[in-house]
């Protein structure tokens, strides 16, 4: 993920903005006035909805985001602009149209159950005057954006006229336009770089029943040709993402746990736009989007994801390079905080791991079985020399860390300079501290910071010392 952190893409989101309003409470009685529940409201929360959720996802990834939309001259419009300002999103391209209602969806939740939703919004198409003002505003700085996203929620902002004007303007300035479409007629998005319809939307738009790779490819080709796209793309939920540029390519999903798919489509288009804006290929962008979606569906509600979360998630899948698993004290501190906040059980062990052998591997596999995340503290070269003698280590710390990080059982490796990992254990505060069976009856450094201590027996006859003796021909 470091490559994504070296550049901050500038992305403009154009679409239907709305406020998601939640009234949380409890219900213990029925109204005497009518057969309806009475909800005692305890708290209210508001979130950016619609295209706002795409904005939230882009901000979480680290993009510089601007927004363009049309809202009403009402209190909801004022509130929405304040919400955008609070997350440092440029809203200077938002047009206020007199007489229009800014979208606000209010949900009443009682005991975690939504019992009612009421909406206040305008769904008619924006006026031609508003369209003209949007184009006039965007034209002034179109070249400063890396990518444009059209987020269509069918509330009237993204008219056919506006879409075609924006796409033409962007293409003339070499700026990619990505569209999250709505409805079954995608012709208004003609000329966009790509669309991100889900399987159901693609089937409705193409009249093709997608049931296998052959029909999937046919739908992708039809979309590409009829809408004049650079790349055709369809999201397939648990089936991942399919693309067609010159041939069909599929990118498998990487979700381990699915709690809620709310807002996953917004995460996909935001992450693809983010990746393409940093000059990644569509293949890299689709893989990145799958990772982002894998994190988001493991959360409840319309969620977002950060680059750090994606990196950590990728590390647990062991689809990343060993470098991604080797962390500094500062990095592991932040990682541990996030895992602990998500209720994950952290396991810690340490050692020299000079010449890796089957005893090490079995020890680490058993250590990982005690929890969700295994962090291995690795003695530095100087530390190993002090503990094992001047001829050790055989392998340098950089090499030892890289090999350890490649093991499936190991989630993260943290090198340390001291003779003991006391300070590292103090910082991590693992749930389980693991040491070798030879520590039976001995004091173990850092136990006061762990919830439990587990001792793991060694494999008979397997040790670095014995391996060195065998190499030297000195073993008995």
Automatic annotation (TrEMBL):
Record: active site: 266
Example GO molecular function: phosphotransferase activity, alcohol group as acceptor
GO CC entries: cytosol
Region of interest (Ribokinase), residue spans: 1-320
Top EC category: transferase
UniProt xrefs under PANTHER family: BIFUNCTIONAL PROTEIN HLDE (PTHR46969)
Full protein name: Bifunctional protein HldE
Species in which this protein is naturally found: Sulfurimonas hongkongensis
Record gene name: hldE
